[in-house]
Amino acid sequence: MSVPARDTARPPVVVVGAGPTGTVAALLLDRFGVDTLVLDRWEDVFPQPRAVHLDDEVCRILDGVDAADDFLAASRPGKGLRLVDSELRTLAQFDRDPDERPHGFPPANMFDQPDLERILRRRLEKAGSVTFRGGVEVEDVVHDGDHVVVVVRDVETGRREAITADVVLGCDGANSAVRTAIGSSMTDLGPSQRWLVIDVETEAPLAHWEGVHQLCDPQRAATYMRIGATRHRWEFELVDDESPDDYADLASLEPLMRPWLADVSVDDLELIRTAEYTFRAQVVDRWRDRRVFLLGDAAHLTPPFIGQGLGAGLRDASNLAWKVAAVRRGLLPESAWETYQQEREPHARSMIGLAVMVGRLMVGGGERTMTIRRGILPVLSRVPGLASLVTDSTTPALSASPFVRTGPVRSRLTRTALVGTLVPNAVQGDGARLDSTVAHRFSIVTTATPTAQQSRDLDRRGCVVVVVPPASPLGRWLARGRVSAALVRPDRTVMAAGTSLAALFTRVPTSPTAGVGKSDAP
């Protein structure tokens, strides 16, 4: 494709795609003072619901861009998982305590994706370093020396132009044009499945338990969940000879939904939409080509059984944004970008594998498997501690990289279970949670008091030192890891930990927010 004349403006970062992943990436870059241009096919948010769940770890990311309070107001806590048979008889129930909040948020949150996107768009309008441009389609992404040329076409006029950028983030979904442009391809991690997704609104009281219902039926698996005060979602597996056209209205949908409707008439329901979704388990082979990165659905797709699809994209944004900012400011070498795939790919593969496994356990097999489930699941649900394990929102630690020091190192740094995990967003003595204290900077959480010289040097590097009492929540967290200090990255991941504050001190990079005044404030 020939490249049209270039735009004279050169934004440091171009984000392709203004869904939640792209918008959060842009908002995080704004926190680091990086000018960013966001491009999208649509002027406004996509109106149809898609993702419906985010966990507390991901809520911390939203909180970091001042969107968590509005999100919590628009969502409702999820209360766990109930496995049911074809008659909706409970086989097993795993309750979740919404008040157990190590990160300051409910461990599961049900929501309507357009609501979240509108919240993020409002934040985008207030971001001083971000420009949004809708109504354009990206046709190509081409490297040209130390920069990238993004070829776009105006949807209305057809006019093509080239935008030059230092870095491009491809957040443009499952059919990513950016992924195609850099020659990356998806690898299957499991079989695909065709499902019918139904979104309904009603004021009628569907008096169901306020958690996710998973129908374990070998004839037709299904999922039901309430996602808002008046919003409900069903997902039904489609059999080979079925088409979404077979379920175009409430009359044709009623036989599927009837077990949950009880005495409620379909006349009391408003059908928001029906759509066929192919549940895929895939991960991209190459997450980065030089200055172009893939995030979200452009990089990975997962079945929805553990509700981690959208969250994975926001984790991508959180992992990458501070590294892009630090490299652009000359605080880190470009080799730091290699850690993006090093850290995120194993994590994404692990979560996709878990979703595939859970799906098979809940809905796989035939009648014989269902008979086994009826016998085993009620017993398992009564095993002490199993419910908390099933509903635990903690995700795996990140794999080793230069920013996840899991291997044997010198100077009394230790191999510990804390490294690669998130530091708890615990309440401090002043009543503030940790995230509001450290913002998007490197930080050291420790039970030891630094020397005056250490404090000055750390302050110069934009690193916050949080000294905690041994009996405090963070002090007990350190003790469980058998360390007295932990070095925490701007994305709240523990980079290193040890029994010596001096050992950590030698490894602290300069925070990408150092010298960026507005980002130094919580």
From TrEMBL:
Pfam family, one: FAD_binding_3
InterPro entries: FAD-bd, FAD/NAD-bd_sf, PheA/TfdB_FAD_monoxygenase
Keywords for the protein's UniProt record, in alphabetical order: Oxidoreductase
Gene3D superfamilies reported in the protein's UniProt record: 3.30.70.2450, FAD/NAD(P)-binding domain (3.50.50.60)
Domain FAD-binding positions: 12-352
Protein name, UniProt field: Bifunctional 3-(3-hydroxy-phenyl)propionate/3-hydroxycinnamic acid hydroxylase
Species this chain originates from: Rhodococcoides kroppenstedtii
